[in-house]
Amino acid sequence: MSPTATVWLVIVICGALTFAIRASFVLVADRFEGLSSETMELLRMIPAAAIAALVAPAVLRPGGELVVFGPRPIAAALALAVAAWTRSILWTIVVGLVAVTALEWAFA
Predict the structure, then answer these.
(1) Distance of CA 26 to the CA centre of its chain
(2) How confident is the model at residue 10 (pLDDT cuts 50, 70, 90)?
(3) Rounded Cα–Cα distance for residues 53 and 50 (Å)
(4) Structure pTM?
C-alpha cells in the first residue's frame, strides 16, 4: 500500500471513529434522564473543563516554560474579568484578542 493510501486510510478510520464516538451520545441520550442531579451537574461541567485544559497551556506555557507575568496571562485575566462582568462570549473574545495583540506588541 502506498504512503498516500495509508494516510487516507488512517484519516477515514479516524473520522469514522470520531463520528461513532459523537453519535454514541445521541444514541444513549434517553438514558441520561435516569441519572442523578449530581451526575448531570458533573456532565454539564465537562465542556468548561475541556476548554480550560486547552487554553491553560497556551496561556501559561506558550513557549514551553511557565510564564506567569506576560502578555498572555494578563490578556487572559482581562478576558476573564470581562466574561464575569458582561457574561458575553463576544465581548470576552474581542477583549481577549485585542488585549493579547496589544500586550504582545508592547512586550516585544
Answers:
(1) 21
(2) very high
(3) 5
(4) 0.61
**In degrees to the nearest 10, what's the CA dihedral of 19, 24, 30, 32?**
-110
Per-residue pLDDT at 67 exceeds 90: no
- Alpha-carbon Rg for the chain, nearest whole angstrom, is 20
Domain layout of the chain by residue ranges: 1-34, 42-108
Distances (CA, A) of 71 to 45, 58, 60, 85, 97: 28, 12, 10, 21, 11
Contact (CB, 8 A) for 72 and 100: yes
Q: Provide the percentage of residues in the chain whose pLDDT is more than 90.
A: 57
- Type of residue at 78: L
How many contiguous H segments (helices) and E segments (strands) does the chain have? 4, 0
